[in-house]
Amino acid sequence: MRDATAIRFDDVTLGYGRRPAVHHLAGEVPAGSLTAVVGPNGAGKSTLLKGVVGTLPPLSGRIEVTGAARARIAYLPQAAELDRSFPLPVYDLVAMGLWTRAGLFGAIGRADRARIEEAIAAVGLTGFERRPIATLSGGQMQRALFARLLLQDASLILLDEPFTAIDAKTTADLLDLVRRWHREARTVVAVLHDLDVVRRVFPETLLIAREPVAWGKTDEVLTAGNLLKARRMVEAHDPHAVACGR
Amino acid sequence: MIIHDLLVVPFAEYAFMRRALVGTVAIALGGAPVGVFLMLRRMSLTGDAMAHAILPGAAAGYLVAGLSLPAMTIGGLIAGVIVAVLAGVVARLTALKEDASLAAFYLLSLALGVTLVSLRGSNVDLLHVLFGTVLALDDAALILLASIATVTLVSLALLYRPLVLECVDPTFLRSVSRAGTPTHLIFLTLVVLNLVSGFQALGTLLAVGMMMLPAASARFWSGDITLMTAVAILVGIVSAALGLLASYHAELPAGPSIILVAGCVYLASLLLGPQGGLVWLARPGRHLEA
After folding, report:
1. pLDDT value for A2
2. Structural domains of chain A ordered from first start
3. Which of residues 99-118 of A touch B (CB under 8 A)?
4. B35-61 burial: b if 16+ Cβ within 10 Å, else e
5. What is the pLDDT of residue B116?
6. Is the ipTM of this complex over 0.90?
7. Residues A175/A205, Cβ–Cβ less than 8 Å
8. Looking at CA atoms only, how far is residue B240 from chain A in angstroms?
9. For B165, which of A71, A77, A96 is closest by C-beta distance?
10. Is the Cβ pair B171, A132 closer than 8 Å?
């Protein structure tokens, strides 16, 4: 089990139009591993997660998610993509996590309601159940979304900048949940900017700047040399770019 | 007794008033919940665009079969569904957003409709299509309206989860299920169905009124989707009844007077509604301790 692969990237290029955002990535995320994805803005980190979730098909190459059907992936995108003005209570937002089990029509029974309340308690939002999501602060919203992830009970969890604009206390609480998922042998891949957090919590790191820069043990990846290399990434479009020969 | 005369006698004495009431209640039952979801999905003007898109179908039906309700209904349905589905598919596959792609298709459709209408020259019968015939609903029309209301309510109940999810967090829905796109297309079909149902009674121009005005009013009374839907239906039914009575007593055209009443309810809600009504905004009261 320990040596099984959760995600295999087979010379993957992901992008928009014909422009690559992730260029020729190859490698494996072992099942049960805890991996940080690090890199400058525009490095293709979010694009990479979209590729794994399956909402963005690769331009070339293959992404193989083994041992987990699409519905068994829990994905937390950057918070901006959620309509917070929608009149929905926190409880219902968290309950969405049961989709993979309840689906379109499945009933939500007493056991499920207990699990929903448990998840809300685990992120410290007890008492907020009936509050509309519009009234939550940024940190409370992120707690609610983590509660939803808990309910999804997924074997592969993808987090896209989960702690951006989140205070230290909330980050610490949510990192405890990440550690708990790791102990439960779930595979976690998180896009992060805070290198201290990465060094403290994440054993594995993928450093990417459109091209993969380094991938492996966090200490060996986050070296001054590698970080400098990542920072040199060219962000501008090259109008004369020709078809890639690799 | 005078209240009895004002409110009950018109419906008790005249069958056409009872039929009009039954028809408009059916329209409110189906249209108002659809309107609530249109509003929450920020598609309030989509209904209006779709109403125009129906015109060429209805006109084609008229050209083929004369003033035949079934022919115009089927024609309108086909035209509306084609425009809705094309717009939805283009929005999902290309860089064009839903509003732009819908505008393109509905304008095409409207121009086609106007062309078709002018082929037959001016015709008084066709005015009925534009402005509706709420006081002349026959059995077939009533059965159609009731069927559409039933189909709408059952479909909304079945699609409730993906519909809400698609509004709040479309990325999440895409990550757990492929239900998003079919849900959206079915929902657009429901919009068309209810517009067709509305145009029987209120005409293509005002059909949207029974959808959006009750929904927009309900937003001021509740922050909960279920309650909002119930309030919207209630507003629709009350507007229909009061509008018909006003048209009876003041000898006003029935369709517009129903929508005018709904418009007044909206204005009242805008002023007094506890969820962000203007009066409450102006006098918020002293802030709380916590």
Report:
1. 47
2. 1-68+196-246 (3.40.50.300)
3. 99-100, 103-105
4. bbbbbbbebbebbbbbbbbbbbbbbbb
5. 81
6. no
7. no
8. 27
9. A96
10. no
